[in-house]
Design a protein that fits this description.
CATH architecture: Alpha-Beta Horseshoe
Number of strands: 10
Number of domains: 1
Strand content: 5-15%
């Protein structure tokens, strides 16, 4: 593990600075009996109303993860704390069954991994995601999954049964085909080659699969869009979507510091291009803008995605890139995950 490194928490008055070298960040697991498991979304930028997250924090340690600031609400840090201090909601399946049994529940689609990856390494031990999927199968409730993990292939049986009884689609988040690049910015996540293998296994088991090219990091991963889509189609993907890099709150500091260490030669150019698609800033938190980009460079990225998707047969009703969100920028797009 890398040394403990957290930006100052804006919700905590105290901030500790090490007098000597910081210690290594060691994994700490906290078990929680949560009071609820379904989160209700009211943002117009998100294409679902309900999401489920069995874990707080994520061992994948992606430098750009937009969920990092959620750890600050707990009095922790958005840096190494986010990937080394993990809370496990041990009663997730029981809470989900209770929610589905209520008279007012109408079998709306539930998105797994709205915040952190539901198939991060601790899932191999706790099996909370599998148990929650089994609850969805028992109630015939539709599901959408977003993951970077090969571990999802373990649950091919439950997911295939869900595909027959209700509805399910597994979206694999893959922004590049470069395994080495991933090791620098996503140190705890499986390499793209393993994600494609899991995608193929689920497809062969009868589970609908798709690829989410996210986050697109301008000047770094955008050049890989055609190869990501080509490999996804070869592995059975029937749909595709993309989102640009988001850097809310202290994610900016975490991402830029790790980018400079992993890619020192390209860091300045990448930062310049990010600001170019965000009106000179590193992030735009406004509804209708935060999940999109702007500017000539980002427009070129969108055209590359759309033309490649059309060439590979991902166009038409099944291609999420055809959805538009009109705004006063007149060219921003929202690309829904679970449509099609």
């Amino acid at each position: 593990m890398r040394p403990v490194e957290n930006p100052p928490n804006p919700f905590v008055r105290e901030h500790r600075e090490w007098l000597g070298p910081p210690p290594a960040a060691k994994l700490e697991v906290y078990e929680e009996h949560a009071r609820s498991i379904l989160s209700h979304n009211e943002s117009p930028d998100i294409p679902y109303r309900w999401s489920l997250n069995p874990y707080r924090g994520c061992q994948h340690g992606c430098a750009y993860c937009y969920a990092r600031p959620t750890h600050e609400y707990l009095g922790l840090g958005a840096g190494t704390d986010f990937e080394s201090k993990i809370t496990v909601k041990v009663n997730a399946a029981e809470l989900l069954a209770r929610a589905f049994a209520r008279r007012g529940w109408h079998k709306e689609m539930v998105a797994f991994s709205g915040v952190t990856d539901c198939y991060q390494p601790l899932e191999a031990v706790y099996r909370l995601t599998r148990r929650c999927l089994q609850v969805c199968l028992d109630f015939g409730n539709p599901v959408g999954v977003v993951t970077k993990s090969y571990l999802v292939a373990r649950d091919a049986d439950v997911l295939a049964a869900l595909a027959d009884r209700a509805s399910v689609r597994v979206w694999f988040s893959i922004s590049t085909v470069n395994d080495e690049l991933v090791r620098g910015l996503e140190p705890g996540s499986p390499p793209p080659t393993r994600r494609f293998q899991a995608m193929r296994r689920l497809h062969e088991a009868g589970v609908p699969v798709a690829v989410l090219v996210s986050p697109v990091i301008p000047g770094l991963t955008d050049r890989d869009i055609p190869r990501v889509l080509e490999q996804a189609v070869a592995c059975g993907a029937s749909d595709a979507s993309l989102t640009p890099l988001r850097l809310p709150g202290n994610v900016k500091e975490v991402f830029l510091s790790r980018l400079r260490r992993a890619r020192p030669a390209s860091a300045k150019r990448v930062e310049h291009l990010i600001r170019g698609m965000r009106g000179g800033e590193l992030d735009d938190s406004r509804f209708g803008y935060r999940m999109t980009g702007g500017g000539a460079y980002w427009e070129g990225v969108l055209q590359l995605f759309e033309k490649t998707a059309a060439r590979l047969g991902l166009s038409g009703d099944q291609c999420a890139c055809k959805s538009r969100l009109e705004s006063d920028r007149n060219h921003t797009r929202q690309l829904p995950l679970f449509g099609g």
